[in-house]
Amino acid sequence: MECDWMNLNKEVRWKDKQYIAFDFFDTTIHRNCHPEVILFEWSKKISIYFSFKISATEIYSIRKKSEIHEKQEKQLEEIKYERLLQLVFYTILSRLKSDVTDYNLEDFLIYARTCEEEIELRHISIDTDTINFIEFLKQNGKKIILISDFYSDKKLIEKIMVSLGIRNYFSKIFISSEIGLRKSSGNLYEYVINELSCKPINLLMIGDNIYSDVKVPKKLGIDSYHKSYSDSHVTVSPNDIVKAMNNVVSQACTESLFNLYIPEILYFISKLYKELSVNKASDILFCAREGFFIKKLFDLYQKK
User: Which residue range(s) make up the domain with 61?
Assistant: First the structure.
């Protein structure tokens, strides 16, 4: 979605700013799927690492619950990425009970990180509109920085940037999981201001999240600009995907034939419904043995 950057100076005088900060996901780059789909794909890879002795659904649940528990227990805003992977590893070993000597933490950390990087890189694309504006700002002598609430660390962000050829645009990168503070609380912004040794008025924040990228910095005296973005690739709403994932996890249906493919099935059903609605179809025939299962899911989706 294009953004009218020329209107930016009418709302905020970016020319007066020393630093201009950009959000990363859905502002500078875009995924072609919901983040939860990426986490579930990662869980499948981890299931393979453990020779399918533990399902992707269980691994997905372990990762989500480990993050929540660690934050609550230690009263953290954000958990470091490597610490999260360690928690996942040891929780899986405790579930397996046997064969624990067959797995090495360092090997797992390398494998888990590599899988996450490969999956993210498969699903990303650059926002040319934003990058063109960043190039324009650089030509006008502005210092460009990145501020992102993200579960992984700077290594993954930089790898994505290098693959897209945009690493050199950013003089500094601030990631919530590395610093332990989030934009949504305002604490990450205060950290950035302190690190840059500048006043809030000298910083401009640009991002897609109306709360963490716009309202929060404004409360701290930081000018902000909302770059709206609507993800056309996600037919199922983000909330629906998360709810569906949580339902699968809470039911602990580890023996289900289809639990590895929940994200793909959800997307297919929602896409099918959308296409049928556009074409005003009234009668649909689901064929083959798999058709019965798809029809049941389609009926549930349609009722909602």
Answer: 35-122
